[in-house]
Each structure stands twice: as structure tokens, then as C-alpha cells.
Amino acid sequence: MSRYWVLAEFAGPKALLTAARILRDEGLANVDLHSPHPIDGADEVLGLGASRVRWVGLVGGLVGAVTGYVTCWYTNAINFPIDVGGRPLNSAPAFIPVTFEAGVLFGAFALLFSMLAITGLPALYHPVFEAPGFERVSVDAYWLSFSIRSAEDRANEVAERVKAMGATRVSVVKDPRLEAMR
Amino acid sequence: MATEHAHAAAADPLAGVPVLLGNHTDETLTDTLFGHVWRKPGFGWYALFGLALAGFGLFVLAIAVTLYKGIGAWGNNIPVGWAFGIINFVWWIGIGHAGTLISAILLLFQQKWRTSINRFAEAMTIFAVIQALVFPVIHTGRPWYAAYFLFPYPSTNSIWPQFKSPLMWDVFAVSTYFTISLLFWFMGLIPDLASLRDRSKGKLQKIVYGILSLGWRGSGKHWHNWKVAYLIMAGISTPLVLSVHSVVSFDFAVALLPGWHATIFPPYFVAGAVFSGFAMVVTWIVPARRFLGLKDVITMRHLENMNKIILVTGLIVSYGYLMEHFIAWYSGNEYEWSVFVNRATGPYAGVYWLMITCNVVTPNLFWFKKIRTSIPAMWILSILVNIGMWCERFIIIVTSLHRGFVPSTWEMYYPTWVDFTLFAGTIGFFSTLFLLFMRFLPAVATAEVKEARHEMEIGHVHHHPGLMKAGLPEGHAAH
Prior knowledge:
The structure holds 2 protein chains of 2 kinds. Chain A folds into 2 domains: 100 residues, Alpha-Beta Plaits (2-Layer Sandwich), CATH 3.30.70; 67 residues, no CATH class. In chain A, 50% of the residues lie in helices and 15% in strands. Chain A is built from 6 helices and 4 strands, in the order βαβαααβαβα. A 4-stranded antiparallel sheet of chain A has the order 2-3-1-4. Chain B is mainly α. Chain B is globular and about 70 Å long. At the A-B interface, α1, β2, α2, α3 and α4 of A face α2, α7, α9 and α17 of B.
């Protein structure tokens, strides 16, 4: 038993979504699509709920804003009080710009890093890149991928069935990463 | 240009020139938009790059002289303690604003035409902000000590930055702005970097683009999270870009100085920033679309839209001038009013009237469709706008400072050769970065253009019949 990646190319986004829907209905959980641009309706077919990126971004932004304000307040009102023109030491209006900017800054980093963490990037190698023709995904090709743990014969069988769904080309790639780990 | 006009639909006046010309498939789009990355650059690119590098040489020279001799090498002195340093800082920062406006605000407004120009404008933002940052950093005299009073870290002086000062707000606003612009730009680039990786012929290209693209597989999960992150990034960049130039204007407006102390400053600065930024985009995109072969994607529609924004923001700036002058008179404050009289009739009146000409008078030529859609006219007008906006900052800063409340504080300001050299140097540095960008990265957000093309095909935008020349069948030729 090894892990095999089944990759199938389809003529366009519609055919791709139809095939993905059938496979998922059959109970295959790890179906993924590969396309040169976001496909309308892919999220629903893949069963992807609201991205968690937004929550991490919100938390990052709030942490940033609090950090910004507390920095101003602690440094200028507590640790080293600076009296500027008789204004209150803890002068909220004057601290708002830094609070806002820090919120945006932390929020943006949270967004980027959470996107990378959730998608598992950076990952410079992935078995799907082994499929001949897969490099067209970033140009104009629409591919479907999923992995199964089985014997090679079984993987080839599944691939044949995907081909019958109208795939223009199908590849089976053995995941070398698992082999290496053994 | 004739071919572009030929496509204009006569029936619907809103339709105009399409945002995408030619019968493109995803493959021909990729080839067209990446063409300038794979092509060996021609003589023109090398000539321009040589020129830009020479300009960069001036940049290095001026900074070396400034660091060696000190800030005394610049022309600013009391009472004009702020001059070229802050003029150029505000000018460059302002130019950057168009990039964020295009990439973030137009994305939120679902303006499909933005996808052809956002990458280009975002690159401009980053390179412009780099130039802007040079001035305040060098102006500290010994930049390697600047961190002591700019960043709140527990130093042995046990003293902290003064956070009630607009200058501190500025540090945070501009450094955040630069960081966010870079992250946003990079995020948008990832899918295109993957595309470059997959189209690379050479090993080095494959490795470099491969690493930069982080292993992007265009997977449904990737796009799903990428889209949300990208959209929220646009959402938070929108108030950010408005805050940055507002904070820059606080540098002046918070000071109790006639000519600076005005509540209209934040919106009027933001409008001026967008005004000059769009002008800079037009200045660069007009030659770039021709030499990079991007005319199918950056059409007359885009150029005309940008010229319309220049016209609108130009009118807002004109209104700002009008209000500023009106309030100076209406306030009944003779110091305030004398500053404005001095601007128009004093020793710097020439700069003032050049500003009025370039910012108030000539942009109105864009009311005429003929001029809005004429390549040479828009190119010249866009350059005039940036001359005008530079003059505006000169007028705001120098004329407000050079005559204080009593005549004993009256002094003229003259820039030195170092001032001019550093300014020219930043233009050289900016051009160098821009030319490198156009050499190694796609100038158009290709994945986004593809998405827009597919959406148009499916007919999501049927009510805008002018967006595309012709509907294309789904899918593509077998390969």
C-alpha cells in the first residue's frame, strides 16, 4: 500500500466542477481542483466553508490595535510621562493614528500568514507537479486531483473511472514522500 | 489608435471601448502578458535603464555628500527648516496613493477594469514610497541613530518617542503603508509567479520563480483562502490609504502656522495624492503598454477612466485651493491672509502660478473626450499634473515658513545643488526599480485578467455590453 495521486485534466471549469461533484458525492473527501484562476462555485463543490483567514485577520487586527494604544499610553503616560501643551497624559485622540496603523499592520500579517498556514504554503514540492501537462494549470488547464492509499492496481482502476467522466487526460503519481519516510 | 476607436460601440454611450481587445484565450493572454518577461530587452530598455542607473548614481552621490557634510549641504535653514526633504517626501508618498486606490478601492467597488492596471500601479506605489522614505531618513542627519527616537524600544536612555507628535504618527503611517503595499502586491503576484515558474525555460528562472511562488498549485483550497485574504487586505488598505495622506497632512495642519493650520488639509491632501498618483500611472503606462505589447489589455478605456479620475480629483484639489483662500480671507486673521497674498504676489509667485496652471487650469482639458482619448495630450497633461503637485508642496511648505509673524524672521529659501541632485536621484532610483520590475515580473495581473475574462464569458456582466469585444465559448483548444 502506498499513497497515489490521481490527476485528471478536464476541458473547462464546468466539466471539472461536474466531475468533482460526482466524486465527492461518492464519498471522496480529499478532492481538489487546480485552475489558472478562481472558479465560481468551486468552494461549494469542494465543501469549503467560510475561510478561517478572516477570523485570524480580525484577531490580528485587534491585537495590533491594542498593542498600538497600550504602547502609546504606557510609554507616554506611565513610564515616562510627557506633558505636551498641558494635554492629558493619556490623550486618546492623539493615540488613535498609531492605534489604527498598528491594527492594520498586524491584521495584514495575520492575513498573509494564516493564508499560508491554512493552504500549507510554502510547499515547493508536491506530487501533483509530477503529472505530465500539469504545468499548464497556471496557464489555461483545469485539473482535478485526489489521493488514495491503496495498491497500484486499485489506483489505476479509479483513474480509469475518472477518465470515463470525460477527463481529457489522466495520470497516476505515486507519492514519493511517504516512501522516503519509511 | 484607430483600431481602438473602431471597436467602440455606438449604441450604448456607457459601453465605450472594451477593457479587453482581441480574441484571446487564456494561453494567448498568458503569452501576451508575459511576453515582456521572456523577450530579451531591446535597445530601448537598455538605453532607459542606463539613464535610470545614471540617475541612481546621482542619488548615491547626493546621499554621500549629505552624510559627509551633514544637513548643511541642503538649502534649508531657519526659518525654512523644512524644504526639499519634506516637499519630495510628500510628493512621492502622494504618487504612491494611486496604486492603493486602484488595487484596493476599485476592487471593493468591483471595477473590473482595474485588473489590467493594478499590478503596475501597485509596483509604482512601492517604488514611490521607497523614494519618499529616503528623505525623512536622510534628514535625521545620522540615520543609523534614527531608531532611537522613531521606534518605541526600551533603550538605555530610558526615554520614549513622543506619540502626541504628528511626526511619530507619520512614521507609523508610512512604514505601515509600505509594508502593507508590499504584502498586498506580493499576495497578488503569487499566482502569476507560479505561472512564470511553469513557463520558465531556464533552470535559474525556474528556481527563482519557483521559490517566490511558494509552490502555488492553483488549488481550489488555495484560491478559496487567497481570495478572502486578498479581499480583506483590500478592505483594510482602503482606510489605510486615506489615513496615510491624512496623517501626512497633520504634519502641517496640527502646527499653529498660518498657511498650514487648516481643517481642510486631510481630504485635500488625499485628493491631491490620488490626483498626482493617477497622473504618474498615466505617464508610465502610456509608453509601457506600447513597448511591452499590452495594448489588448490596457485599452483606451483604461486610459480614459484614469483621465476621468484625474479630472475629478483635480476639481477636488481646485475646490481645496478655493476653500483655503476663502477661509484665509473670511477668518479675518491678517497673518493668515497675508500668507495667501504673499503666495500669489510674493517672491515665489512664479511657482504659485505654475501650480495653479498645472493643477487647476490644464486638467480641465480632460472635459473634452478628444483630449481624454489622445495619447500625446494625456501624456503631456499627466506630466504637468506632477509638476503642479510638486509646486503645490513647495508653496505650502516654503511660503508658509519663509515669512514669520515679524519681518525679522523673513528669509528667502534657495535649494542647493545637493537638493536638486537628490531629487533627480530619487527619480533615477524610481525609474531603475520600475524598469527592473518590467523586465522580470508581469506588468499585468494575469490570473485576475483571466478570471475577469471568464466572468465576462459566463455573462455575469451582461448589463455592461461594452466590457468585452466578443463573448468566447467556454474552454479552450485542446493542447
